[in-house]
TrEMBL record:
Belongs to the glycosyl hydrolase 51 family. This is non-reducing end alpha-L-arabinofuranosidase. It comes from the Bacteria. Keywords: Carbohydrate metabolism, Glycosidase, Hydrolase.
Amino acid sequence: MTNQIIINVDVEKGTINKDIYGHFAEHLGRCIYEGIWVGEDSTIPNTNGIRNDVLQALKNLNIPVLRWPGGCFADEYHWKDGVGPREQRKRMVNTHWGGVIENNHFGTHEFMLLCELLECEPYICGNVGSGTVQEMSEWVEYMTLNGESPMADWRKANGREEAWDLKYFGVGNENWGCGGNMRPEYYADLYRRYQTYVRNYGKNKIYKIAGGANVDDYNWTEVLMREAHWLMDGLSLHYYTIPGDFWLGKGSALDPRAEEWFVTMKKALHMDVLISKHSTIMDKYDPAKRIGLIIDEWGTWFDVEPGTNPGFLYQQNTIRDALVAGVHFHIFHKHNDRVQMTNIAQTVNVLQAMVLTEGEKMLLTPTYHVFEMFKVHQDATKLDVTVNSDTYELNGEKLPAVSASASKNASGTIHISLCNINHEAASSVNIDLRGFAGDSTKVTGRILTAEKTNEHNTFEQPDNVKPVSFENFTVTNNELTVTLPPMSVVVLTVE
Ligand code: AHR
Protein backbone atom coordinates (compact mmCIF):
# COMPACT_ATOMS: atom_id res chain seq x y z
CA MET A 1 0.00 0.00 0.00
CA THR A 2 1.10 3.57 -0.63
CA ASN A 3 0.79 6.18 2.07
CA GLN A 4 -1.36 9.14 1.08
CA ILE A 5 -0.68 12.65 2.29
CA ILE A 6 -2.86 15.60 1.33
CA ILE A 7 -1.49 19.07 1.94
CA ASN A 8 -4.02 21.87 1.48
CA VAL A 9 -1.59 24.63 0.67
CA ASP A 10 -4.22 27.37 0.94
CA VAL A 11 -5.63 26.19 4.28
CA GLU A 12 -3.55 27.79 7.02
CA LYS A 13 -3.67 26.48 10.58
CA GLY A 14 -1.94 29.15 12.63
CA THR A 15 1.74 29.63 13.41
CA ILE A 16 4.18 26.97 14.56
CA ASN A 17 5.50 28.84 17.57
CA LYS A 18 9.29 28.83 17.33
CA ASP A 19 9.43 28.19 21.08
CA ILE A 20 8.31 24.63 20.37
CA TYR A 21 12.00 24.16 19.45
CA GLY A 22 13.15 25.21 22.93
CA HIS A 23 15.84 23.70 25.13
CA PHE A 24 16.60 22.90 28.75
CA ALA A 25 19.99 23.00 30.47
CA GLU A 26 20.25 21.97 34.13
CA HIS A 27 23.04 21.89 36.68
CA LEU A 28 23.15 18.14 36.21
CA GLY A 29 26.14 15.98 35.37
CA ARG A 30 28.22 17.55 32.60
CA CYS A 31 25.50 19.69 31.04
CA ILE A 32 26.47 23.10 32.41
CA TYR A 33 29.97 22.37 33.72
CA GLU A 34 32.21 20.96 30.97
CA GLY A 35 29.38 20.93 28.42
CA ILE A 36 28.74 24.68 28.32
CA TRP A 37 30.87 26.36 30.96
CA VAL A 38 34.61 25.68 31.04
CA GLY A 39 35.72 28.93 32.69
CA GLU A 40 37.80 31.75 31.32
CA ASP A 41 41.11 30.06 32.15
CA SER A 42 40.32 26.84 30.28
CA THR A 43 42.53 25.63 27.45
CA ILE A 44 39.29 24.90 25.58
CA PRO A 45 38.60 27.98 23.43
CA ASN A 46 35.84 29.97 25.08
CA THR A 47 33.99 33.26 25.18
CA ASN A 48 33.97 34.59 28.74
CA GLY A 49 34.03 30.98 29.99
CA ILE A 50 31.46 29.51 27.56
CA ARG A 51 33.02 26.97 25.22
CA ASN A 52 33.08 28.16 21.61
CA ASP A 53 32.51 24.85 19.84
CA VAL A 54 29.27 24.13 21.71
CA LEU A 55 28.19 27.75 21.34
CA GLN A 56 28.65 27.66 17.57
CA ALA A 57 26.86 24.32 17.26
CA LEU A 58 23.91 25.58 19.29
CA LYS A 59 23.76 28.90 17.45
CA ASN A 60 23.23 26.95 14.26
CA LEU A 61 19.99 25.53 15.70
CA ASN A 62 18.39 28.97 16.20
CA ILE A 63 17.49 28.01 19.75
CA PRO A 64 14.52 30.23 20.60
CA VAL A 65 14.38 29.74 24.37
CA LEU A 66 16.53 28.08 27.03
CA ARG A 67 15.23 26.83 30.39
CA TRP A 68 17.56 26.94 33.43
CA PRO A 69 18.75 26.11 36.17
CA GLY A 70 16.57 22.98 36.56
CA GLY A 71 14.69 20.63 36.83
CA CYS A 72 14.99 19.24 40.29
CA PHE A 73 18.04 21.44 40.83
CA ALA A 74 15.86 24.56 40.59
CA ASP A 75 14.03 23.81 43.84
CA GLU A 76 17.33 23.62 45.71
CA TYR A 77 19.00 26.53 43.97
CA HIS A 78 19.54 29.77 45.83
CA TRP A 79 20.37 32.34 43.21
CA LYS A 80 22.19 34.72 45.56
CA ASP A 81 24.92 32.08 45.93
CA GLY A 82 25.60 32.40 42.21
CA VAL A 83 26.31 36.13 41.78
CA GLY A 84 29.28 38.31 42.69
CA PRO A 85 33.00 37.49 42.41
CA ARG A 86 33.26 33.84 41.40
CA GLU A 87 35.99 32.88 43.82
CA GLN A 88 33.81 34.07 46.70
CA ARG A 89 30.69 32.20 45.67
CA LYS A 90 29.30 29.61 48.05
CA ARG A 91 30.01 25.97 47.31
CA MET A 92 27.11 23.56 47.77
CA VAL A 93 26.35 19.89 47.30
CA ASN A 94 24.22 19.01 44.28
CA THR A 95 22.21 16.45 46.23
CA HIS A 96 19.90 15.47 43.38
CA TRP A 97 22.54 14.87 40.80
CA GLY A 98 25.50 12.78 41.90
CA GLY A 99 26.24 14.56 45.20
CA VAL A 100 28.99 16.57 43.53
CA ILE A 101 30.21 20.01 44.60
CA GLU A 102 28.52 22.88 42.82
CA ASN A 103 30.80 25.90 42.93
CA ASN A 104 28.17 28.30 41.62
CA HIS A 105 30.54 29.66 38.98
CA PHE A 106 27.73 29.51 36.44
CA GLY A 107 25.04 31.80 37.83
CA THR A 108 22.56 34.41 36.67
CA HIS A 109 25.09 36.64 34.86
CA GLU A 110 26.69 33.70 33.07
CA PHE A 111 23.30 32.27 32.04
CA MET A 112 22.12 35.61 30.72
CA LEU A 113 25.35 35.98 28.76
CA LEU A 114 24.79 32.53 27.25
CA CYS A 115 21.28 33.56 26.17
CA GLU A 116 22.62 36.79 24.68
CA LEU A 117 25.25 34.86 22.73
CA LEU A 118 22.63 32.36 21.52
CA GLU A 119 20.17 35.20 20.86
CA CYS A 120 17.47 33.26 22.68
CA GLU A 121 14.92 34.04 25.38
CA PRO A 122 15.90 33.01 28.90
CA TYR A 123 13.39 30.85 30.77
CA ILE A 124 14.20 30.84 34.47
CA CYS A 125 12.72 28.32 36.85
CA GLY A 126 12.34 29.66 40.40
CA ASN A 127 12.58 27.81 43.69
CA VAL A 128 9.30 27.02 45.43
CA GLY A 129 10.34 23.74 47.09
CA SER A 130 13.03 25.13 49.39
CA GLY A 131 13.03 28.86 48.63
CA THR A 132 11.09 31.78 49.99
CA VAL A 133 8.67 34.15 48.33
CA GLN A 134 11.12 36.97 49.07
CA GLU A 135 13.99 35.11 47.39
CA MET A 136 11.96 34.55 44.23
CA SER A 137 10.67 38.09 44.20
CA GLU A 138 14.16 39.53 44.64
CA TRP A 139 15.55 37.40 41.83
CA VAL A 140 13.05 38.94 39.42
CA GLU A 141 13.87 42.40 40.80
CA TYR A 142 17.61 41.73 40.40
CA MET A 143 17.22 40.71 36.79
CA THR A 144 14.58 43.09 35.48
CA LEU A 145 14.41 46.34 37.46
CA ASN A 146 16.07 49.32 35.84
CA GLY A 147 16.73 52.28 38.14
CA GLU A 148 17.34 52.24 41.85
CA SER A 149 16.44 49.39 44.23
CA PRO A 150 18.40 47.14 46.57
CA MET A 151 18.55 44.30 44.02
CA ALA A 152 19.13 46.53 40.98
CA ASP A 153 21.97 48.25 42.84
CA TRP A 154 23.50 44.89 43.69
CA ARG A 155 23.28 43.79 40.05
CA LYS A 156 25.07 46.97 39.00
CA ALA A 157 27.75 46.44 41.63
CA ASN A 158 28.20 42.98 40.12
CA GLY A 159 28.94 44.48 36.74
CA ARG A 160 25.63 44.67 34.91
CA GLU A 161 24.20 48.16 34.58
CA GLU A 162 21.14 47.49 32.41
CA ALA A 163 18.41 45.15 33.52
CA TRP A 164 17.91 42.09 31.33
CA ASP A 165 14.72 41.31 29.45
CA LEU A 166 13.14 38.26 31.00
CA LYS A 167 10.01 36.85 29.46
CA TYR A 168 9.57 33.34 30.85
CA PHE A 169 9.52 32.50 34.54
CA GLY A 170 8.51 29.13 36.02
CA VAL A 171 7.14 29.05 39.55
CA GLY A 172 8.76 25.81 40.70
CA ASN A 173 9.42 22.47 39.00
CA GLU A 174 7.79 19.07 39.49
CA ASN A 175 6.24 20.20 42.75
CA TRP A 176 4.44 16.86 42.90
CA GLY A 177 7.88 15.21 43.28
CA CYS A 178 11.41 16.56 43.68
CA GLY A 179 9.99 20.09 43.97
CA GLY A 180 8.34 19.43 47.34
CA ASN A 181 6.13 16.31 47.11
CA MET A 182 3.05 18.50 47.26
CA ARG A 183 -0.60 17.81 46.65
CA PRO A 184 -2.04 19.81 43.75
CA GLU A 185 -4.33 21.80 46.09
CA TYR A 186 -1.36 22.84 48.23
CA TYR A 187 0.84 23.72 45.24
CA ALA A 188 -2.02 25.67 43.63
CA ASP A 189 -2.19 27.86 46.75
CA LEU A 190 1.59 28.29 46.78
CA TYR A 191 1.54 29.13 43.09
CA ARG A 192 -1.06 31.85 43.71
CA ARG A 193 1.05 33.28 46.50
CA TYR A 194 4.52 33.09 44.90
CA GLN A 195 3.43 34.42 41.51
CA THR A 196 1.95 37.50 43.18
CA TYR A 197 5.46 38.74 43.84
CA VAL A 198 6.85 37.88 40.41
CA ARG A 199 6.51 41.52 39.36
CA ASN A 200 6.60 43.27 36.02
CA TYR A 201 9.13 46.10 36.29
CA GLY A 202 9.08 48.83 33.66
CA LYS A 203 8.34 47.41 30.25
CA ASN A 204 9.36 43.87 31.17
CA LYS A 205 6.31 41.60 31.02
CA ILE A 206 6.68 38.16 32.52
CA TYR A 207 4.92 35.10 31.13
CA LYS A 208 4.27 33.04 34.27
CA ILE A 209 4.41 29.27 34.05
CA ALA A 210 2.84 27.10 36.74
CA GLY A 211 4.39 23.74 37.56
CA GLY A 212 2.31 21.14 35.79
CA ALA A 213 1.52 17.48 35.74
CA ASN A 214 3.61 14.37 35.54
CA VAL A 215 2.60 12.33 32.49
CA ASP A 216 -1.10 11.40 32.90
CA ASP A 217 -1.84 13.07 36.23
CA TYR A 218 -4.97 14.73 34.87
CA ASN A 219 -6.15 15.60 38.36
CA TRP A 220 -3.11 17.88 38.75
CA THR A 221 -4.08 19.79 35.62
CA GLU A 222 -7.71 19.96 36.71
CA VAL A 223 -6.86 21.36 40.16
CA LEU A 224 -4.29 23.88 38.89
CA MET A 225 -6.65 25.15 36.21
CA ARG A 226 -9.60 25.31 38.58
CA GLU A 227 -7.71 27.10 41.35
CA ALA A 228 -5.34 29.40 39.48
CA HIS A 229 -5.93 29.57 35.73
CA TRP A 230 -6.47 33.34 35.69
CA LEU A 231 -3.06 33.87 37.30
CA MET A 232 -0.98 31.89 34.83
CA ASP A 233 0.15 32.23 31.22
CA GLY A 234 1.41 28.68 30.89
CA LEU A 235 1.03 25.33 32.61
CA SER A 236 3.74 22.74 32.21
CA LEU A 237 3.70 19.01 31.46
CA HIS A 238 6.59 16.53 31.73
CA TYR A 239 6.73 13.30 29.78
CA TYR A 240 9.80 11.23 28.94
CA THR A 241 10.02 8.39 26.42
CA ILE A 242 11.34 5.45 28.45
CA PRO A 243 11.26 2.09 26.67
CA GLY A 244 11.57 0.10 29.91
CA ASP A 245 10.58 0.88 33.48
CA PHE A 246 11.75 4.05 35.24
CA TRP A 247 12.87 2.21 38.40
CA LEU A 248 13.52 -1.34 37.20
CA GLY A 249 15.58 -0.53 34.10
CA LYS A 250 14.89 2.01 31.41
CA GLY A 251 16.75 0.18 28.64
CA SER A 252 20.02 0.85 26.88
CA ALA A 253 20.42 3.76 24.48
CA LEU A 254 22.34 1.42 22.19
CA ASP A 255 19.96 -1.56 22.33
CA PRO A 256 19.78 -2.91 18.75
CA ARG A 257 16.62 -5.01 19.19
CA ALA A 258 13.53 -4.40 17.05
CA GLU A 259 11.28 -4.76 20.12
CA GLU A 260 13.08 -1.93 21.90
CA TRP A 261 12.80 0.23 18.81
CA PHE A 262 9.07 -0.48 18.46
CA VAL A 263 8.17 0.17 22.08
CA THR A 264 10.18 3.41 22.02
CA MET A 265 8.17 4.64 19.04
CA LYS A 266 4.91 3.57 20.68
CA LYS A 267 5.79 5.53 23.81
CA ALA A 268 6.92 8.56 21.84
CA LEU A 269 3.59 8.62 19.99
CA HIS A 270 1.80 8.57 23.36
CA MET A 271 2.66 12.27 23.68
CA ASP A 272 -0.28 12.93 21.33
CA VAL A 273 -2.74 11.30 23.75
CA LEU A 274 -1.31 13.19 26.73
CA ILE A 275 -1.52 16.57 25.03
CA SER A 276 -5.07 15.91 23.84
CA LYS A 277 -6.29 14.92 27.30
CA HIS A 278 -4.54 17.68 29.24
CA SER A 279 -5.76 20.19 26.62
CA THR A 280 -9.35 19.02 27.03
CA ILE A 281 -9.14 19.85 30.73
CA MET A 282 -7.55 23.20 29.98
CA ASP A 283 -10.28 23.95 27.43
CA LYS A 284 -12.88 23.73 30.19
CA TYR A 285 -11.34 26.70 32.04
CA ASP A 286 -9.69 28.43 29.11
CA PRO A 287 -11.75 27.86 25.95
CA ALA A 288 -9.98 30.75 24.21
CA LYS A 289 -6.68 28.87 24.62
CA ARG A 290 -4.89 31.84 26.15
CA ILE A 291 -2.84 29.60 28.44
CA GLY A 292 -0.04 27.65 26.84
CA LEU A 293 0.66 24.01 27.54
CA ILE A 294 4.40 24.16 28.12
CA ILE A 295 6.07 20.79 27.71
CA ASP A 296 9.26 21.89 29.39
CA GLU A 297 10.76 18.41 29.75
CA TRP A 298 10.54 15.73 27.09
CA GLY A 299 12.78 13.28 25.28
CA THR A 300 14.28 9.82 25.68
CA TRP A 301 15.51 8.58 29.03
CA PHE A 302 17.68 5.44 28.97
CA ASP A 303 20.01 3.78 31.47
CA VAL A 304 23.24 5.75 31.80
CA GLU A 305 26.19 4.67 29.68
CA PRO A 306 28.04 1.86 31.50
CA GLY A 307 30.87 3.19 33.66
CA THR A 308 29.45 6.71 34.00
CA ASN A 309 28.12 8.35 37.17
CA PRO A 310 24.47 7.19 37.58
CA GLY A 311 23.60 10.69 38.81
CA PHE A 312 24.87 12.32 35.63
CA LEU A 313 22.26 10.87 33.23
CA TYR A 314 24.74 10.58 30.37
CA GLN A 315 23.41 8.51 27.46
CA GLN A 316 24.35 7.94 23.83
CA ASN A 317 22.05 9.10 21.08
CA THR A 318 21.13 7.11 17.97
CA ILE A 319 18.92 7.22 14.92
CA ARG A 320 16.17 6.02 17.32
CA ASP A 321 16.44 9.33 19.19
CA ALA A 322 16.25 11.17 15.89
CA LEU A 323 12.93 9.51 15.05
CA VAL A 324 11.64 10.22 18.56
CA ALA A 325 12.45 13.91 18.05
CA GLY A 326 10.85 13.97 14.60
CA VAL A 327 7.54 12.41 15.67
CA HIS A 328 7.41 14.69 18.73
CA PHE A 329 7.69 17.75 16.52
CA HIS A 330 4.89 16.48 14.32
CA ILE A 331 2.73 16.03 17.42
CA PHE A 332 3.66 19.47 18.78
CA HIS A 333 2.81 21.07 15.42
CA LYS A 334 -0.53 19.27 15.40
CA HIS A 335 -1.36 20.89 18.75
CA ASN A 336 -0.03 24.35 17.91
CA ASP A 337 -3.24 25.93 19.19
CA ARG A 338 -2.37 24.89 22.78
CA VAL A 339 1.33 23.98 22.86
CA GLN A 340 3.20 27.28 23.02
CA MET A 341 6.62 26.03 24.09
CA THR A 342 8.55 22.80 24.60
CA ASN A 343 12.03 22.20 25.99
CA ILE A 344 13.92 19.02 25.21
CA ALA A 345 15.84 17.48 28.10
CA GLN A 346 18.67 18.34 27.83
CA THR A 347 20.97 20.43 25.65
CA VAL A 348 24.45 18.97 26.35
CA ASN A 349 25.70 15.63 27.77
CA VAL A 350 22.45 14.79 29.59
CA LEU A 351 19.54 12.57 28.41
CA GLN A 352 18.53 13.28 24.78
CA ALA A 353 21.29 15.78 24.12
CA MET A 354 22.12 17.84 21.05
CA VAL A 355 25.85 17.61 21.60
CA LEU A 356 28.15 15.36 23.58
CA THR A 357 31.57 16.42 24.78
CA GLU A 358 34.66 14.64 26.02
CA GLY A 359 37.37 17.03 27.13
CA GLU A 360 37.99 19.30 24.19
CA LYS A 361 36.13 17.02 21.75
CA MET A 362 32.52 17.53 20.73
CA LEU A 363 30.09 15.61 18.53
CA LEU A 364 26.67 16.40 17.11
CA THR A 365 24.03 13.77 17.84
CA PRO A 366 21.33 12.49 15.48
CA THR A 367 18.85 14.51 17.58
CA TYR A 368 20.87 17.65 16.84
CA HIS A 369 20.45 17.02 13.14
CA VAL A 370 16.66 16.76 13.44
CA PHE A 371 16.52 20.10 15.28
CA GLU A 372 18.68 21.60 12.56
CA MET A 373 16.62 20.13 9.70
CA PHE A 374 13.30 21.14 11.29
CA LYS A 375 14.31 24.72 12.17
CA VAL A 376 12.66 25.80 8.90
CA HIS A 377 9.30 25.26 10.64
CA GLN A 378 10.07 27.84 13.36
CA ASP A 379 7.41 30.59 13.29
CA ALA A 380 6.19 29.40 9.89
CA THR A 381 2.50 29.06 9.01
CA LYS A 382 1.21 25.55 9.54
CA LEU A 383 -0.59 24.05 6.55
CA ASP A 384 -3.50 21.65 6.70
CA VAL A 385 -2.15 18.10 6.38
CA THR A 386 -3.96 14.76 6.31
CA VAL A 387 -1.90 11.58 6.55
CA ASN A 388 -3.21 8.12 5.70
CA SER A 389 -0.37 5.90 6.80
CA ASP A 390 0.51 2.25 6.43
CA THR A 391 0.75 0.38 9.67
CA TYR A 392 4.00 -0.67 11.24
CA GLU A 393 3.46 -3.97 13.03
CA LEU A 394 5.44 -5.96 15.52
CA ASN A 395 4.23 -8.91 17.56
CA GLY A 396 0.61 -8.08 16.73
CA GLU A 397 0.81 -4.41 17.73
CA LYS A 398 0.30 -1.67 15.17
CA LEU A 399 1.51 1.90 14.81
CA PRO A 400 1.20 4.37 11.92
CA ALA A 401 4.52 4.16 10.06
CA VAL A 402 4.53 7.62 8.53
CA SER A 403 3.95 11.03 10.08
CA ALA A 404 4.24 14.42 8.44
CA SER A 405 3.87 18.16 8.86
CA ALA A 406 4.04 21.07 6.44
CA SER A 407 4.55 24.79 6.81
CA LYS A 408 4.95 27.88 4.66
CA ASN A 409 7.50 30.54 5.50
CA ALA A 410 7.30 34.32 4.96
CA SER A 411 8.63 34.04 1.41
CA GLY A 412 6.10 31.40 0.43
CA THR A 413 8.49 28.43 0.52
CA ILE A 414 6.86 25.22 1.72
CA HIS A 415 8.67 22.72 3.93
CA ILE A 416 7.37 19.22 4.37
CA SER A 417 8.84 17.02 7.09
CA LEU A 418 8.31 13.28 7.02
CA CYS A 419 9.21 10.44 9.38
CA ASN A 420 9.14 6.72 8.68
CA ILE A 421 9.46 4.96 12.04
CA ASN A 422 9.42 1.46 10.55
CA HIS A 423 12.79 -0.07 11.41
CA GLU A 424 12.87 -2.49 8.47
CA ALA A 425 10.51 -1.44 5.67
CA ALA A 426 10.64 1.53 3.33
CA SER A 427 7.45 3.51 2.79
CA SER A 428 6.25 4.88 -0.48
CA VAL A 429 4.41 8.17 0.05
CA ASN A 430 2.15 10.02 -2.33
CA ILE A 431 1.87 13.73 -1.51
CA ASP A 432 -0.91 15.77 -3.07
CA LEU A 433 -0.04 19.47 -2.88
CA ARG A 434 -3.59 20.79 -3.30
CA GLY A 435 -3.89 24.42 -4.26
CA PHE A 436 -0.20 24.87 -4.95
CA ALA A 437 0.15 27.60 -7.56
CA GLY A 438 3.92 27.65 -7.92
CA ASP A 439 6.28 25.61 -10.02
CA SER A 440 6.33 22.42 -7.98
CA THR A 441 9.18 20.96 -9.98
CA LYS A 442 11.56 22.93 -7.73
CA VAL A 443 11.79 20.40 -4.96
CA THR A 444 14.90 19.64 -2.94
CA GLY A 445 15.36 17.35 0.02
CA ARG A 446 17.52 16.29 2.93
CA ILE A 447 17.46 12.98 4.75
CA LEU A 448 18.72 11.56 8.04
CA THR A 449 18.77 7.78 8.15
CA ALA A 450 20.91 4.79 9.10
CA GLU A 451 21.37 1.11 8.35
CA LYS A 452 21.21 -0.12 11.95
CA THR A 453 18.73 0.72 14.70
CA ASN A 454 21.49 1.78 17.08
CA GLU A 455 23.68 3.74 14.69
CA HIS A 456 25.21 6.76 16.36
CA ASN A 457 28.09 9.19 16.29
CA THR A 458 31.26 8.72 18.30
CA PHE A 459 34.20 11.00 18.99
CA GLU A 460 36.20 8.82 16.59
CA GLN A 461 33.47 8.72 13.93
CA PRO A 462 31.38 11.85 14.46
CA ASP A 463 29.70 11.74 11.02
CA ASN A 464 28.18 8.25 11.05
CA VAL A 465 24.69 9.74 11.19
CA LYS A 466 24.26 13.07 9.50
CA PRO A 467 21.87 14.62 6.98
CA VAL A 468 22.61 14.23 3.29
CA SER A 469 20.92 15.39 0.17
CA PHE A 470 17.78 13.38 -0.72
CA GLU A 471 16.59 12.77 -4.25
CA ASN A 472 14.45 9.67 -3.98
CA PHE A 473 11.26 11.34 -5.20
CA THR A 474 9.47 12.19 -8.41
CA VAL A 475 7.31 15.21 -9.17
CA THR A 476 4.31 15.24 -11.51
CA ASN A 477 2.40 18.52 -11.53
CA ASN A 478 1.40 18.99 -7.90
CA GLU A 479 2.03 15.40 -6.84
CA LEU A 480 5.16 14.11 -5.19
CA THR A 481 5.98 10.45 -4.86
CA VAL A 482 8.58 9.87 -2.21
CA THR A 483 10.27 6.69 -1.05
CA LEU A 484 11.21 6.92 2.59
CA PRO A 485 13.83 4.38 3.66
CA PRO A 486 13.32 2.56 6.97
CA MET A 487 14.16 4.71 10.02
CA SER A 488 14.28 7.99 8.16
CA VAL A 489 13.59 11.67 8.70
CA VAL A 490 13.19 13.75 5.53
CA VAL A 491 12.60 17.45 4.96
CA LEU A 492 11.50 18.58 1.48
CA THR A 493 11.62 22.17 0.30
CA VAL A 494 9.07 23.15 -2.34
CA GLU A 495 9.42 26.50 -4.10
O1 AHR B 1 15.73 16.16 33.28
C1 AHR B 1 16.10 15.42 34.41
C2 AHR B 1 15.11 15.56 35.55
O2 AHR B 1 13.90 14.98 35.19
C3 AHR B 1 14.73 16.96 35.95
O3 AHR B 1 15.62 17.54 36.82
C4 AHR B 1 13.41 16.75 36.61
O4 AHR B 1 12.57 17.89 36.54
C5 AHR B 1 12.84 15.54 35.93
O5 AHR B 1 12.36 14.61 36.82
